[in-house]
């Protein structure tokens, strides 16, 4: 039952919206925060040197404070910010898909936990199911009205 919910398109859209609204609130309140995210979904521009990227764990925590916080923004379902990495402070723009953010943290306390899982396969299956159900419901509603019988031959 939980598996169906966390992969449901409506649930994932709600979680994405909640993540975005919470981050925007932190921007407005000038509240520094951290994000725990899946590093496999994160992109860096320019790409990080191998010796730096090899140090990341599958779940990586980024703290947005100082210049990193000031440069942060949300664009097209991504949290984007500039950060420096390694001893040489290698600069890169970090792009994190909102649904790849698993936790939002303030002062070492998680204030938001994201359970949603967005997969292409799940979205396609769900869309087909909704379309078939919607078509059947629409046709049943159409046929239940006697006025519409003149349109059917």
Automatic annotation (TrEMBL):
The lineage of its organism: Bacteria, Pseudomonadati, Campylobacterota, Epsilonproteobacteria, Campylobacterales. This is Uncharacterized protein. It comes from the Bacteria.
């Amino acid at each position: 039952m939980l598996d169906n919910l966390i992969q449901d398109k409506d649930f994932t859209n709600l979680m994405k919206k909640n993540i975005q609204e919470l981050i925007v609130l932190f921007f407005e309140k000038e509240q520094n925060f951290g994000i725990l995210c899946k590093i496999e979904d994160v992109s860096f521009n320019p790409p990080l040197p191998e010796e730096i990227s090899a140090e990341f764990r599958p779940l990586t925590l980024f703290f947005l404070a100082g210049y990193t916080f000031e440069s942060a923004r949300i664009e097209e379902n991504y949290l984007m910010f500039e950060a420096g990495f390694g001893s040489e402070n290698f600069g890169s723009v970090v792009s994190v898909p909102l649904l790849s953010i698993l936790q939002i943290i303030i002062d070492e306390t998680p204030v938001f936990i994201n359970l949603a899982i967005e997969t292409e396969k799940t979205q396609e299956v769900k869309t087909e199911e909704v379309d078939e159900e919607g078509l059947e419901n629409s046709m049943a509603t159409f046929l239940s009205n006697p006025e519409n019988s003149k349109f059917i031959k």
